[in-house]
Amino acid sequence: MGVVSDIPVGSPPVPPGRHAAPGGWYPDPVNSAQERYWDGWQWSRNTRPRAGAAPAANGPAGPSYAAYPAQSTAGQPQGPPGYPAYARVPAGPVATTADGVRLAGWWWRVLAAVIDSVLVSAVVSILAFPIWQTMSVKLRAYTDLVFASQPGGTPPPLEIGMLLTPQEQVILTALSLGVGMFYHVAFLRWRAATPGKLICGLRVVPVDRGRSTEKLSWNTIGIRSAIRVMPGITSILTVFILLDSLLPLWHPKRQAIHDLAAKTQVTRPDLSAR
């Protein structure tokens, strides 16, 4: 049974490699005749006599840095003599689902979203090639007109209507929405992740059910995909898109708006067992 020492918490100085040592009893760096409890973060006030140790001499004992919990070197776990070896553990809390699966970091989600955006844009561009071809002809004609204008004169303004007809604009919007929705719905139903998420090792799961192996429901997929894709059709919703993207940074469950609406979370299960 440990006794309460009058040494304040935090004294003696924090030992090297403090985050690497598990909680337990270690030789007291202040008094070699006793042991002090290390809580995994700092020295506590609890001490107990050290078995087989000679009584401490009168007077303050200097710090014995050799008695501090040792830090792993060269990838090999180490510890104080006579104590079991230990592995290095993360220094801070890790965000997980309720059943212990690690949640995806914000930067991984951003990278996955960028990859998905590039892939969707590539497909839309291929399908809309005739429209882009017509637009390039119009743009070339406009450029020739600008160069042919009188020096010092004001060139005619370039407006979107000069390059794309209203019908072509509608077709492009429909293609973007259709390809985006099909892309997200199909892959979320098939693999619970889009290609961008698969590349980054991410997975979409029902909230707090990171170990679930069931397919996501159509309702969940539809809500999540619609909120993820639909705002992209107009610049008016840019603020909404920005808020949706940034919300996981401070939300306790790292959910975006489309996650909250669909009751989902994004995990990175390949790191959960590490």
Keyphrases for this structure?
6 strands; alpha+beta; 274 residues
Quick structural gist:
It contains 8 helices and 6 strands, in the order ββββαααααβαααβ.
Oligomer: single chain
Q: What is the count of helical runs? A: 8
> How much helical structure, as a percent, in the residues?
25-40%
Tell me the fraction of residues in β-strands, as a range: 5-15%
**What is the global morphology?**
elongated
Distance between the termini: 34 Å
Order of helices and strands: EEEEHHHHHEHHHE
Computed Rg: 31 Å
Tell me the domain tally.
2
Low-confidence blocks of residues: 58-92
Question: Can you count the beta strands?
Answer: 6
- In order across it, which strands form the biggest sheet? 1-4-3-2
Spell out the blueprint of helices and strands.
Layout: E1 3-4, E2 24-27, E3 34-38, E4 43-49, H1 106-127, H2 129-148, H3 160-163, H4 166-191, H5 195-200, E5 203-206, H6 218-229, H7 238-246, H8 257-262, E6 264-267
Antiparallel strand pairs: 1-4, 2-3, 3-4, 5-6
Helix pairs in contact: 1-4, 4-6
Descriptive report:
The protein has 2 domains: 92 residues, no CATH class; 122 residues, no CATH class. 38% of the residues lie in helices and 9% in strands. It contains 8 helices and 6 strands, in the order E-E-E-E-H-H-H-H-H-E-H-H-H-E. A 4-stranded antiparallel sheet has the order 1-4-3-2, with no helix packed on it. A two-stranded antiparallel sheet has the order 5-6.
